[in-house]
Specification:
14% of the residues lie in helices and 27% in strands. The protein starts with 10 loop residues before the first strand and ends in a 6-residue tail after the last strand. It is of the alpha+beta class. The radius of gyration is 17 Å and the shape is globular. Strands 6-5-4-7-8 form a five-stranded mixed sheet.
């Protein structure tokens, strides 16, 4: 089952947010998402946006490196089809699929089969767009909270560990 076939929660740009407490996202000057969250969460700012391609299967998400990116956002991830945001794949939906995969014994480190090397159709990589406390926007394809990546920062600054800034 591909991500666009799953139930996705609606999301609105922060500038169009309603008072109903739904999901909101911020976007950069090019219209690409930078943060995703809820205004009614009581937390200052919004966590980084994690972007997942619509054609990706839930099994590919749950058994690949894209799963680690979900640690950056407690709500879930934005599912996109090209430049169009389809909605939010919520954490509880991913968790339910992880439980099912774990029960079948099909999580990471499964023995690969020859067909694993074949990519059918268009392929897109899950990414997270993180704004560091220094203001630099960084795109990540993998994330380990125990070993944060290095942020290059502005040209005059020295490299430092990427520190997630609330959007």
């Amino acid at each position: 089952m591909t991500l666009d076939q799953l139930p996705l929660a609606p999301v609105a740009p922060l500038s169009e947010a309603a008072a109903d407490g739904g999901y909101v996202m911020t976007v950069d000057a090019d219209g690409r998402p930078t943060a995703l969250g809820r205004l009614d969460s009581g937390e200052p700012g919004l966590p980084p946006a994690v972007l997942l391609p619509a054609p990706m299967t839930m099994a590919a998400l749950c058994t690949g490196d894209g799963l680690d990116l979900l640690a950056l956002n407690p709500y879930g991830a934005l599912v996109h089809d090209g430049g169009r945001i389809l909605g939010v794949l919520e954490q509880h939906t991913v968790a339910a699929h992880l439980v099912a995969l774990a029960a079948r014994g099909t999580l990471r480190n499964d023995v690969p089969v020859p067909l694993d090397a074949v990519l059918a159709g268009a392929y897109s990589t899950p990414v997270a767009r993180v704004v560091c406390h220094c203001g630099r926007l960084t795109t990540l394809t993998e994330y380990d909270p125990d070993f944060p990546p290095v942020c290059d920062g502005p040209a005059e600054a020295t490299p430092h560990p990427l520190a997630v800034r609330a959007g």
